[in-house]
Amino acid sequence: MVERPDRVQRTAGGTDASKRRRFLKVAGGGALVGLAGCLGGGGGGGDDTDTEDDNGGGGGGGGGGGGTTDGGDDSVEMPDTLRIGHPSPARPVYNLPTYTTFLSRMEDRGVTIEPQTFSGFTGVVAGMVSGEVDLAYTTPPSLVNATSQGFPIRSVMELSQRFSQQVIVQEEVDDWEQLRGETLVAHSPQSFSALVLKTAVRQNLGSADEVNYRYIIGTPNRIAAMQSGDTLATTVFTSGAISAQNRGIAKIFYNLNDDTDPMTLAQWTLLEDQINEQEEMYQVVFDEMQAAYNDVYSGDSAELADSALNSPTNFPDFGADVWAETIDIAKEDEMFPREKSSQLTEAKIQLGLQLSQQTELISEIPDTSTLVDRRFLE
């Protein structure tokens, strides 16, 4: 088992009312000093990427006049634009709801979803602190490393509870023992790609140290390394794995989801001030996000694939059929949590942190109360 038309982007208004509705911008450049060091470097955090040098993020978008929606008995004012931070240009399958069903729901409320791309999770956290994005997601290690350095961010909702990467190997590889002592390839040291590969090696060979590692950024580039015979095995997006197998470049070898329980992996993250000062608005956002997850389960995979490939962001164009199959696999694996009550539980958080520690992406596991705020899930 395995893993666009242009849109007119609305810009922020300049009235006093719109300024009051802007998402909070906090901290100047001084707050960012040392951020790269605390998170382990610039490009190391992304789940995956292609080779574009797209580090912009930009300050445009967030805020503006927006529509309103009924939040209980009160009317909750929404922004014109919701800027979402990403660690790399290419989108894996766990970004599917954001740019299909959630995007549609928010457009119905008068809100435009605007992707902002950074170089790794270091850049994402910096973009949050400097006010360049209104919502972003992190991984367990990037969240731990940022909060340990005093950055005021908290995990508020799960984005994925399953891995989006698969191990692919050369055709001649039939057993994990053939990989012992070899050099295998992942995206970057702090990435989901590395977490998946090291965990897979540890579970099948007894220790993550039984192989050597090197890093090539981007699923397309790692597939190219397989095609040229530069490595025996690597981890890539599920969509990339299916594409590589269909083209006879490699074969799908291992899905870590088969041997692990659901855990807190990619997770939506906010600044503490955003949580406290924009609580009603973000409650609407996360209510719609949960509904969007469930829309994916009930939706047609082919239609969702077409919607993703025509969304205002970059899902690598492996073809609509490949993406439809990828979405089917994500549904089967239950990548997206079906209920709020199942998210950010102590057990699921600990599973993600333990894997991060076992693969040396974090040195110790902190008190989870310093990482999480569950108010939007209650």
Question: Would you kindly provide a written description of the structure presented here, covering whatever features stand out?
Answer:
The protein is of the alpha/beta class. It has two domains: 16-162 and 263-377, D-Maltodextrin-Binding Protein, domain 2 (3-Layer(aba) Sandwich); 165-259, 3-Layer(aba) Sandwich (D-Maltodextrin-Binding Protein, domain 2). It has helices at residues 16-21, 35-39, 101-108, 120-129, 140-148, 192-205, 219-227, 238-246, 272-277, 279-298, 301-309, 320-333, 346-358; strands spanning 68-71, 74-77, 81-86, 112-117, 135-138, 153-158, 165-169, 183-186, 212-215, 233-237, 251-254, 267-271. Strands 4-3-5-12-6 form a five-stranded mixed sheet, with helices on both faces. Strands 10-7-11 form a three-stranded antiparallel sheet, sandwiched between helices. Strands 1-2 form a two-stranded antiparallel sheet. The longest helix has 20 residues, at 279-298.
Uncertain runs: 1-34, 40-74
Task: Quote the CATH topology of the largest domain.
Answer: D-Maltodextrin-Binding Protein, domain 2
The top-level CATH class of the largest domain is Alpha Beta
**Head-to-tail CA distance between termini:** 34 Å
What CATH architecture of the largest domain would you give?
3-Layer(aba) Sandwich
Biggest β-sheet description: 5 strands, mixed
Tally the structural domains: 2
Overall outline = globular
Give the H and E element order.
Answer: HHEEEHEHEHEEEHEHEHEEHHHHH
Instruction: Say which CATH homologous superfamily of the largest domain is assigned.
Output: Periplasmic binding protein-like II
